[in-house]
Records
---
Amino acid sequence: MWNLQEYRFASNPAEAVALMRKGPGKGAYIAGGTDMLLEHPTCDFVVDINKAGIGDIARTAGGDLFIGAAATLQVLADNVFVTGFAGGAVSVAASKCGNRPVRTTATVGGNLCNALPSADMAPVLLALDATCYITDEDSQESLPLTDFFVGPRLTVLEDRLLVGVGLPGECAGWRCASHKLTRTAEDISLVQVAVSLGVDDGRIQEARIALGAVAPVPMRAILAETMLMGQEITAVTPDFMRDVAAIAAGECDPLDDHRASAEYRRDMVSVLTRRLVARILTDDGDNREGGAA
Ligand SMILES: Cc1cc2nc3c(=O)[nH]c(=O)nc-3n(C[C@H](O)[C@H](O)[C@H](O)COP(=O)(O)OP(=O)(O)OC[C@H]3O[C@@H](n4cnc5c(N)ncnc54)[C@H](O)[C@@H]3O)c2cc1C
């Protein structure tokens, strides 16, 4: 049973961390509460971060996209800066999380900080080289999203606050697409794959392949990415892609559970990787319709 004794509101990020450390008892941050309230939390108090000024979305002069941790998934789905970045891939991924009532409450920060291997926002953000911004009471840290997840439901945060994520301006023109394999949009992902390619002069200059729900943490398929990097588009034949996809499937470490077997998940990583790369290379990279992989 939830033994909540105090509900604290933070008006800025540093205050949120200070309130978290103000004992006694065990506290937790709360944003949308859509994960937390499902899980019968054992905390004595919560620190509400919705008024801490970390919900904004902005493009910097250099073209980087900053997404505040308390931005809701529906805002991500609709925001003009997000729909205009990398073909709108982040917006499309957000629009496929849960249902509209959930998305209007659930935040991107909560999705990442809950740190499920299947967190739906993680693959697309990993595929666009996201950086996490973390605050302590009197210091800030930034680190690649690849280093944020430590294990299932575990991040580097401890009692610090995730302030937001940044996507570098160089990725704005990348072609990016993701696919969530699931029974219904409200179900947990069986497999998630996100691919982004920086294509220039008929050649793949940059490649990212990110996978969700197939390892203890959301991950990148680095070996498969390396195979794609530097390839001329004309060299990306079906046979070559079968090899790349097989390498990506070999890099993950899926679980057998009641939802799907490890073998099926691995096969789906291969299929989706192949299809997403083909789709990106044959499309104009615009994701707004979010078609099936
Ligand atoms: C019906 C339903 C359907 C769902 N469908 C999906 C789905 O399709 N895909 C999917 O990925 N998820 C889904 N979810 C899960 C959930 O909605 C998302 O993970 C959501 O983004 C969590 O955000 P939140 O703001 O509600 O997090 P909260 O529940 O408020 O917080 C989650 C955790 O993160 C911590 N936290 C939150 N923000 C911060 C921060 N800024 N810094 C540090 N710690 C923080 C909290 O302390 C808590 O431990 C679904 C949930 C429901 C109820």
---
Amino acid sequence: MTRRRIAGALAAVTVALVLAGCATGGAPGAAGSTHPPRSASPSPSSPSSVAVPSASQPATTSGSAPTTAAAPRSTTDPPPPAPPAAGAPVIVIDPGHSVTVGGTDPATGLNVADYENEPEMRDVFDVALLVRQQLTAAGYRVILTKTSVEAPTNLGTRARIANDAHAALALSIHDQAGSNGGIGFTAGNNIVYYQAVGDYRINPAGTKITFTDAAVASLSQRYAQVFQRQRAAAQGTAVRLQGNTGYDLGGRGLQAGDIWIVQLLARVPWVYNEAGGNSAGMVGLSTADKQRYADGLVAAVEACVPISR
Ligand SMILES: [Zn+2]
């Protein structure tokens, strides 16, 4: 991306987003593929270090535009939400996966491509709609990171939507479904991930991008503990709590590191949820299990960010 100074940052970001919308990314989108797919690994050598910019600690990045300018909304953004109740917290719901979409985050150089994974993509979108319905009814201002199940929405756009909205809390919803490699909804993969200082990914240029915002990390961890409890109660399963992925994602053909891209780019507390994806006797989630997953997420949001009544 062309180097620009602050005066040109807005235009630079716009250019990058336009390119992101039509570029092919590093993540293949074959339906029914295992999650995540294999793709070219950046295989960096002796990466340099860059901290993710945060509101309290602006970071310099190598060869990238300043990030102090507000990023413009793209055509994939959701429409403005309905007027919220006075003081209503903003909750961003991030249903996992997109039809194949590329992109590079202009501030960090991270590949923010996303890929389709079925039936996960459709199932977790249904769960997101259930969560939105219940939170909206409870008085929250809710923003989805995707306008529709097939809206092409890369990982950078998802993070930006939550950052621009100054969300009190963002939550990603994923599961592990499929006829091959799928996990039973009650059998495992029920995990809640929070952001922790020191979590990182390595961009395709070999630069290490580290999560550094201690205040957000502290909130993220506290909220994730609530998600763990509430999801376990609603789903009737054990749920694990993790401050990183627990292994190097580079081993799965993704950018090396140990935090999900949306959490790394977020400047707000972001709780990333995984679950089993196959209900008993089927591939994908049943209506009842979608509701169980949603109920746990809703209860967690209401406990993390209580709304004044
Ligand atoms: Zn997923």
---
Amino acid sequence: MNPNEDPLADEGLAFEVGRSDWKQTRFVEGPVPDLAPGQVLFRVDRFALTANNISYALSGDSLGYWRFFPCEAGWGRIPVMGFAEVIRSTHPEVAEGTRCFGFYPMARHLVIQPGIVSPAQIVDAAPHRAGLAPVYAQYLPTTGDAVYAERREDAILLMRGLFMTSFLADDFLADQDYRGARSVVISSASSKTSIALAFQVKQTGHARAIGLTSARNAEFVRALGFYDRVVLYDEIASLAQEPAVFVDMAGDGAVTAAVHRHFGDALQYDCAIGATHWSAARNSAGLPGPKPEFFFAPAQIVKRSKDWGPQRLSERLAAAWTKFCDASDAWLHVVRSDGRAALERVYQDTLAGRTDPADGHIVSL
Ligand SMILES: NC(=O)c1ccc[n+]([C@@H]2O[C@H](COP(=O)([O-])OP(=O)(O)OC[C@H]3O[C@@H](n4cnc5c(N)ncnc54)[C@H](OP(=O)(O)O)[C@@H]3O)[C@@H](O)[C@H]2O)c1
């Protein structure tokens, strides 16, 4: 957006996908929303789009992701991490000009109804959010966010949430001494979440990170230097049959079966996190080895808040994030684009798994 333009003259615009066929998309235009008393209007500056957002569509019904930004029946607004500015406020504690990191629709505007407001967070208490994960209702003003750095904005959009999951997943496994295993086998090794996990496993230093990936992404994954070994999905049988834990970012029944059949009883734990291969069926029925268990990051946050205290947990997370960001400058290639056609292209490429894994797409509408 041109800063000299009046932001309120800007028309409303939102990107929606068909809830039963995510390849189907449309842009919905409309006036900039009016505010009731106590509300805040954000103008979304830019947002990141990765496979993680496609998982929100996959879990749209089961985990409620379609309910964050309600729209016409049959259509859905997939949530994304973005930065946005308050351009109008009828809430006494929220000033116009406040810039916040948070969960937005792929749209130009979002209206929220703040409940709790502090220098560190503005929490949307809109009734349609009732029962949804509280973490997604938090909008973090850049001025009260210890992790914020202007030069890191794109990395924050692309990887902050993903890194946090991987930090907690490694911590969860390390806390149990990786169940006695010394190898962590990670699928969709080229995904940003897996890259962050491999980085953390290496930092913790008690296990080796082994990446599983597709042929087109193998060279990129090897060049990262974060994995001790990288094999293709059809080379799983070449791995040593020693005790291992599997962290599954792909959610692909065929990959899960190959890992379980190869390691058998040597597989100590199957930690299901992602579903990048969303069009493949997730299936683990009748396989040897442990039953997959979904990783629940909030439980690890609760545990470490008790063990270390919330302040120490935040400090550790912030320190680890800074290290990861510094190390990511060498591989992450931020690709910024603007407008409807760019969003449509980035979305369809992300959905189909056609994006280059080094690219981190940031889009503005
Ligand atoms: N449960 C949680 O709390 C949580 C939190 C964060 C992330 N996650 C999950 O972690 C996963 C990774 O997310 P990300 O944002 O880090 O991903 P990303 O960086 O966008 O990952 C891209 C990679 O995923 C694979 N991929 C993506 N789309 C595909 C498709 N249509 N067909 C086949 N392969 C495809 C490819 O890897 P390969 O060729 O290497 O397979 C591709 O290089 C997501 O499923 C996300 O939901 C879960």
